[in-house]
């Protein structure tokens, strides 16, 4: 693959990440994202245990983990973390899953999970939406939760209020265009 193609894809990923940050940090978006005020409830009873954390891919088709896997016994009841409408229920490749559209461009997916709900069903936070099943990449005894905001995967822990905001700290001494330390005169 030519270097310019790789570089162009890398730049696109940086631009996409920047746009997502603008989306996540803008006041209008902040009120639409449940992690900013109205936190989602944990979808299974018991201790909150993340077995495998979110790892953002470098680009759309790159390796990563586009969600979190949480500890949940096979057969455990899963509750809706927030209000929404069932957008999809079915089997994809080898795993049963359910997708909920929460509005404002926010969509969550739970897998492997069996459910009797049909697309179009309205769910409220805390409603039973299915049971932990087996299949797919998630180890038995775990439930994978994926969250997309306007089609971009984000760390689901943001929705549960468990990811502190990043704080940017100064890393270097400020330097003037002439190369002198800031605050000094040549």
From TrEMBL:
Superkingdom is Bacteria
Record's InterPro entries?
Answer: Cell_wall_metabolism_enzyme (IPR050570), Dup_hybrid_motif (IPR011055), M23ase_b-sheet_dom (IPR016047)
What UniProt keywords apply to this chain's record, in alphabetical order?
Signal
A molecular function GO annotation: metalloendopeptidase activity
The signal peptide annotation in the UniProt record is 1-32
Q: Which residues form the M23ase beta-sheet core domain?
A: 64-156
PANTHER family given in the database record = MUREIN HYDROLASE ACTIVATOR ENVC (PTHR21666:SF270), PEPTIDASE-RELATED (PTHR21666)
Q: What is this protein called?
A: M23ase beta-sheet core domain-containing protein
Which species is listed as the source?
Answer: Microbacterium aerolatum
Source species taxonomy: Bacteria, Bacillati, Actinomycetota, Actinomycetes, Micrococcales
